[in-house]
Every structure is written in structure tokens, then in C-alpha cells.
Design brief:
The protein is α/β, with parallel strands linked by helices. It has a single domain, classed as Rossmann fold (3-Layer(aba) Sandwich), CATH 3.40.50.10310. Helices cover 46% and strands 9% of the residues. It is built from nine helices and six strands. The strands form two sheets. The chain has a four-stranded parallel sheet, with helices on both faces. A hairpin with a 2-residue loop joins strand 1 and strand 2. Helix 7 crosses helix 8 and helix 7 packs across helix 9. About 6% of the residues have low confidence.
Length: 302
Amino acid sequence: MKVSDSRRGVLRSLAAMAAAGSLVGQASGSGSPLLPASSLTRVADRYVNPRKVLLWESTRKEIRELIASGRLKAAIIPTGSTEQHNEHLAMIHDTASALLVAQQAALQLYPQVIVATPVAVGISPYWMARKGTLTLRPETFLALVLDIGESLRAHGIRNILIVNGHGGNDKPLKSQIAAWRDKLGVNIDACSYWEAYTASEEAKEATRKCMQTGLEKVPAHAGEFETSIALAAFPERVHREGVDYDKVKLDLKDPEDAKNDREFYYDSLLASSEKGEVLIRLAVDWVATKVRSMIASTSGSG
């Protein structure tokens, strides 16, 4: 795919997500979609309102009829956090990025996939020294995700992919997948969307070309990577106004922690929306392929 084609596709997708008026999109405080002039996105040979892949924006009639038709094959549960993202990114970033990838992947597979309401608070105890962070006990977080999975299973959905956007959730989620498959009796899996960037040599190379700070700083924390995604998808959540990092007083006890915090901020100055567009495309395509494979694996089974 040519870079220009890729960028046009990503821009269309981002505009569609903005027009959908998604849950975390409303959190920006604007009270309205970013691009109210457009409410459709192209999916294969048709134009679709992107809200149709969001469970919480759907009516019970729409979901009931979609299930009854046999067209709904899978659900995505986005998980993230509400936590500090340095001086310049909104605390909802991890949730917003997971939802972005989930929604765009679901649109690629429309009408086979629905996106469940995001889990917007995660396991973040190590950020509690920074004001505003919310955290859940691991058992609370995992119980919430499992209950959502049970709800989806009760409606007859047999394929569930958890798309995670917060590092602290990654290992706890993956540690439960085998047990949840047994408990729910469905095809359930979990991934963090940044796994896309190391999924193949081609993906690694594309990511290296984007990231001046290197592949090893994916996802990092509010640095070049996450800030690029925010600039591409939701620039209204990037706030550098009034920020003078050298005057910030964080009172962090661990010198290494303080060093990393400073480094990530200055790394973020290398971010751009153009980099974010490429990174989003890679993640969306990878997640869509993963869900497509899950659906294929259960197609025709009893």
C-alpha cells in the first residue's frame, strides 16, 4: 500500500470516528462530534454510520435484529485507564486509543463485529503519586471484564477479543484467558494493540521509520508514540498550553522515575499526526486480521 493511500484511508477513518460521537469522544468537553458535517464512512461497497459498531450507541432493536440475522459474529472489549499522561496528554488516552483501534477494526469487518462499552479505569497503582490517576484492584478490574464477557456470551456472541490500551492491564488479562475460555465456553482472547508493531518484520520496519525514539519506546508513556496517536486521532486531548516542564514540581521519590518522566515529555516533542496515522493503520489492520481469524476458527462449529 502506498503511503499516500494509507494516509487517506486513515484520515477517512479518523473523521468517521469523530462523527460517530463515541463515548470517550464526548469526554473532551466539546459536547459535540468533531466533524458534525459528516456521519458516514465507507465500508466495502457501502456507506455506514460508524456508531453502528458501538454497542452503547445502538438500540436494543438494532442489536436484537443483528444477532437474529446471524451476521454478528464477534465483539471487542476495549480496556484502558484513567491515569496521568505527563503534562500534556489527557488522562483518558489509553482508553481512547484502545477504543479508536477497536472501532476502526470493527468497521473493517462490518456488520460482523460490535464494540462493547470500554473499561475506562485500569490497574494503575504505580501512577498514584501523580494527581488525578484512578486505579482498580486487579481482582476488581478482572471481574468487571469477565462480567462484560459473560453478558456478551449470554446474547449469543461466541468470539470476544479484548483490545487493551494500558500496560498495567496486559499481563493480568492474559493470565486469565485460559480460565475464561473454560468458564464462558466461548472463543475469547486478549491483546494490547501495540503488539501490532512487532507482529512481523514489515510492521517492525514501518514502525522504526516512524519512531525517532525507536521501536523499544513503543508504547512507553506519553512519549513520541502515544502523543503521535493523539495528534492524529484526537488532537483536542493534547494540551501544551502553559506547560513549562523545567518548572514542574512533581516531588517524585525515585530518581529513575523522575528521569523517565522528564525523558518521556521531551520525547513527546518529536510526535506528529503523520506518524500517528501510520501507527494507527498498522494497529487497526492487525486487530481486524486477528478478529477475522477468530471468526473463521468458529465458523460452522456447533
